[in-house]
Design goal:
It is built from 13 helices and three strands, in the order H-H-H-H-H-H-H-E-E-E-H-H-H-H-H-H. The chain is mainly alpha-helical. Among the domains are: 76 residues; 114 residues, hpI Integrase, Chain A (Orthogonal Bundle), CATH 1.10.443.10. It has a three-stranded antiparallel β-sheet with strand order 1-2-3, with no helix packed on it. Helix 6 runs antiparallel to helix 8.
Length: 275
């Protein structure tokens, strides 16, 4: 590892306060590029970088590597390790609409859950809670009783360490209360398995797969989609989802446009007539 790369990783740890996992991702990306090029990263010019990175055919993987490279060279430029800042453009990736479920699909699935057992009540409450809050599954599984403040969810364990408040529909709160009242355990975390230990991501995945045929993250997409199609302001949705950038939230506007087009195709007379 070059001295410059070592200094960059130290900068990410101390000055940027990134998580160990994020720093490891940067280190892996940059060391892989050095291994492929057989040179220290700082010695590579733009042409050599593109030649090295051309081995990555998957555009999303390529963009992750490019982003790591750009961050590294930006650091080196600011520290005056180099005289010119190398800035590589990211590859264009076709926008893909996120998969989502309609409210009716979720309702139909919820109707199939046997709520005569506390496990059934938990599954019912979990699905409702994910759809009612748009929370990431990691945020949901980290939930503790004190994180519910009246009709608000206080997400303290958020991605990027950003806390946020989300209003929760009363039907989801009622389901949560019913589940906790019937659960045979009183533990630190809200969501528990049959042993009384915290519910894992794999178990949560199995629950949503069982009833909905999708991952928990699709319920987050469904929450955002319902808000956008219903006319919610994009920046409000950004705040609710905890997105650092509005660009991340903007993907849902494509769903809104498609919804508008479908409406015109169905109801506007000129959509069906030829002239």
């Amino acid at each position: 590892m070059s001295n410059e790369l070592e200094a960059f990783l130290e900068y990410l740890h101390i000055s940027k306060a990134l998580s160990a996992k994020s720093i490891q991702a940067y280190e892996t990306d940059l060391l892989q590029i050095e291994a492929l090029s057989k040179k220290a990263l700082i010695e590579l010019d733009t042409q050599a970088l593109f030649s090295t990175l051309s081995s990555y055919k998957n555009k999303r993987t390529l963009n992750r590597k490019l982003s790591s490279v750009n961050s590294f060279f930006d650091f080196c430029y600011k520290k005056e390790f180099i005289v010119e800042n190398t800035k590589l453009h990211l590859a264009k990736i076709p926008k893909k609409l996120p998969k989502f479920l309609s409210f009716e699909q979720i309702q139909n699935a919820l109707a199939l859950i046997d709520r005569t057992t506390w496990i059934g009540l938990r599954d019912y409450a979990l699905i409702l809670f994910l759809y009612a809050t748009g929370a990431r599954i990691s945020e949901c599984l980290a939930l503790q009783s004190e994180d519910i403040e009246e009709e608000w969810l206080h997400i303290r364990h958020a991605k990027g360490e950003k806390e946020r408040l989300i209003p929760v529909a009363s039907v989801a709160l009622d389901a949560l209360t019913h589940y906790l009242r019937e659960a045979p355990f009183e533990k630190e975390f809200v969501w528990m398995n049959y042993k009384g230990t915290p519910l894992s991501r794999i178990s949560a995945y199995k629950i949503t797969q069982k009833y909905l045929g999708v991952s928990p993250h699709i319920l987050r997409h469904s929450y955002a989609t319902a808000l956008i199609v219903g006319g919610a302001d994009l920046r409000v949705v950004q705040e609710l989802l905890g997105h650092a950038s509005l660009i991340t939230t903007q993907i849902y506007t494509h769903i809104q446009k498609q919804d508008l087009k479908d409406t015109v195709d169905v109801y506007h007379p000129m959509a069906k007539e030829s002239f």
